[in-house]
């Protein structure tokens, strides 16, 4: 990937700069040592040995002429300048200031674009900006989405800033039927954080009472986790030596807030990361590949034009017989060459269509993206490694993971029987799985 190449090139330049700096400091250090040694020798001489001063200085001069510190430092500087020039050339090739080269005429669905922008602003809590945008486009149907995201941000802020879980528990209780097993999972995580807060600052009786009141009802669904929490009571006086330190990590509040926001967005039918963020990230990742392709295409077109002009000028100076023979050979070669190129181009185009994106002239550009930004027109089940079909469609579990229908259904015999996600082990039922359309 081009950005990874830039990162490696930058690391190489930094390493080279440190090495050159170290060598330059070594040269200066050697020269200073020689001067100090010469000065020490001169100071140790008596007044009658004045002639020896000259010999010491001549010895110092001979050393400097042989060591040649200026030439050494200049050589190090040239090496560094060469590396910086190569790095600048790499940046110039991959990053262009003229973004219009990558533009193309596209018929946008303005309603969809507006919806994506509003959703992005709501995702990031920019409600005032979103209200101005909604008023400008004259839309009145975003009020429900706005209220939902405002509620989500207030709950998440309460969890992160004040460690308050009451609003989150109230929302879970209200959406219990829609959340399914995820409701119990979130309840356990929320009560777990308060339980450890009581365990650290309160008494054993308070912690035990909280455990009995709020956590023990979740025992049928999370037996192992509840047993671990009960075991932590034994380590009340030396909580730092508890065998489950990960449960008490303060960063769990942020992780829990993110998980809650993810479940909230899933219930709204929204992505945790806004669509606009994903599109912009994918565009930034793939833009360098597009520019490199456009640059190579432009250079090829330029060379072909020059070759054409050269062939025309060359043919004009030939005699009649030579021009006829040459033209017949050229026509024959062009036919063979064009047919071979067409065949090769069609083969490359068909193979590239599987992994690349199409440009306006029908060519395909291979764009290397990180896994989180990859979008596919087909879905391949990660369990069975088969392409989804109409009879075997992709199914999304409430946790967000997607499998083919034949991968999900065998996990349970009855629609309401609990099944575990093969990746994250979240429990759900077949009824809660939702079909996706590509």
UniProtKB/TrEMBL annotation:
A zinc finger (RING-Gid-type) spans 381-424. Residues 347-359 have a biased composition (Low complexity). Its main location: cytoplasm. InterPro entries: CTLH/CRA, CTLH_C, Fyv10_fam, LisH, ZF_RING_GID, Znf_RING/FYVE/PHD. It comes from Dillenia turbinata. Residues 318-333 have a biased composition (Acidic residues). Residues 381-424 form the RING-Gid-type domain. It is found in: Cytoplasm. One of its GO terms (cellular component) is cytoplasm. GO terms for biological process: proteasome-mediated ubiquitin-dependent protein catabolic process. Keywords: Cytoplasm, Metal-binding, Zinc, Zinc-finger. This is CTLH/CRA C-terminal to LisH motif domain.
């Amino acid at each position: 990937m081009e950005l990874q190449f830039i990162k490696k090139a930058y690391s190489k330049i930094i390493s080279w700069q440190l090495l050159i700096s170290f060598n330059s400091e070594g040269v200066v250090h050697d020269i200073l040592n020689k001067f100090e040694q010469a000065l020490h020798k001169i100071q140790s001489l008596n007044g009658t040995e004045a002639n020896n001063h000259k010999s010491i200085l001549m010895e110092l001069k001979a050393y400097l002429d042989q060591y040649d510190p200026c030439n050494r430092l200049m050589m190090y500087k040239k090496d560094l300048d060469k590396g910086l020039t190569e790095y600048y050339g790499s940046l110039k090739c991959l990053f262009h200031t003229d973004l219009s080269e990558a533009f193309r005429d596209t018929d946008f669905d303005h309603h969809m674009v507006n919806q994506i922008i509003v959703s992005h602003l709501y995702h990031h809590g920019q409600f005032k900006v979103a209200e101005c945008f909604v008023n400008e486009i004259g839309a009145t149907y975003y009020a429900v989405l706005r209220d939902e995201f405002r509620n989500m941000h207030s709950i998440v802020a309460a969890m992160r800033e004040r460690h308050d879980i009451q609003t989150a528990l109230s929302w879970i209780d209200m959406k219990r039927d829609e959340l399914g097993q995820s409701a119990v999972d979130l309840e356990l995580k929320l009560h777990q954080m308060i339980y450890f807060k009581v365990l650290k600052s309160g008494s054993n009786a308070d912690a035990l009472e909280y455990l009995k009141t709020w956590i023990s009802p979740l025992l049928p669904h999370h037996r192992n986790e509840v047993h671990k929490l009960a075991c932590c009571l034994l380590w009340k006086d030396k909580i730092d030596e508890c065998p489950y330190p990960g449960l008490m990590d303060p960063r769990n509040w942020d992780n829990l807030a993110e998980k809650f926001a993810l479940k909230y967005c899933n219930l709204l039918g929204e992505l945790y990361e806004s669509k606009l963020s994903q599109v912009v990230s994918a565009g930034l990742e793939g833009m360098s590949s597009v520019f490199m392709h456009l640059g190579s295409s432009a250079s090829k077109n330029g060379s072909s034009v020059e070759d054409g002009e050269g062939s025309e000028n060359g043919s004009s100076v030939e005699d009649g017989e030579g021009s006829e023979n040459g033209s017949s050979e050229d026509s024959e070669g062009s036919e063979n060459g064009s047919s071979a190129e067409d065949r090769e181009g069609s083969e490359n185009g068909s193979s590239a269509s599987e992994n690349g994106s199409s440009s306006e002239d029908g060519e395909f550009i291979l764009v290397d993206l990180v896994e989180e930004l990859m979008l596919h027109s087909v879905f391949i089940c990660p369990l069975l490694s088969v392409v989804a079909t109409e009879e075997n469609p992709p199914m999304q579990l409430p946790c967000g993971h997607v499998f083919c229908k034949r991968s999900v259904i065998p996990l349970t015999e009855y629609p309401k029987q609990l099944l575990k996600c093969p990746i994250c082990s979240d429990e759900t039922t077949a009824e809660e799985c939702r079909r996706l359309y590509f």
